[in-house]
From TrEMBL:
Similarity annotation: Belongs to the universal stress protein A family.
Sequence ranges assigned to domain UspA in this UniProt record: 1-123, 132-265
GO (cellular component) term, any one: cytoplasm
Organism: Stutzerimonas stutzeri (Pseudomonas stutzeri)
Quaternary data: Homodimer.
A Pfam family per the record: Usp
Name of the featured protein: Universal stress protein
Amino acid sequence: MVQHILVAHDLTPEADRALQRGAQLARQSGARLSLLHVLDERDNGADEVAARSLLQNRLQHNGLGDQQPWLRRGNPVEEVLTQARGLEADLLVLGRHHRDSTQGFAGTTLERILLATPAPLLLAIAPAETPYSQALAALDFSPCATRALQCAWRLLPAGAELHALNVDEVAEVHGPDESGLALQQELFDQLLEDIQAWLPDSGVRLSYSLYQGERSNCLEAAIGELQPQLLALGGHSRGELSSALLGSLTRQFLDQPPCDVLVAR
């Protein structure tokens, strides 16, 4: 169960969506929510007063008017990570950052936080007018992918569906490999059986499918078919680690998220 949600807010409209989703999840799960803003070292007292007033207004708008925002001063990455650890948050929520950056996802505040956060990170980009009803988890045989699925399960209300997708990776130019697909299905069935034994009975439905082909193409096809509001990914994938320990598939969907994206490491 999610018990403490930390929302990092940078005073942008994108961060407002993160707070909206964090508030919705807090109401759904009964979790505590903390709102954090990191002031620049150059900000003066007037900037701090303005930031506090804006954040208090946003809390009020989301039904959290009895709470006070946390304001810290310093390096945003260091302060977010320090507060996530100190407050023992078990979910960190951020809005989309640096949308117009020519660097894309690489090198952004989001990536640097993701590489060191002790909690799963939710990138919230869509309006949170309703709870999640459909989630998709890209499930390989890595521990981080399993953790991402388990965390996504805890964010879903009763009646929602979580679909686990596994991909038997083959070059599409080679055509289908029936014997390889049969073996992959056997291994995937066993993995799901093991995972289900640890999932709480919360009224969420678990479905699954196995695709054969190139991972990115298969995941994009599943997203197009299922139209999930939440995509759960492991922080890296086996055999394909970047120098920053983020798999290229995770990087791709964080750089151009089709929906809210949950990442666990």
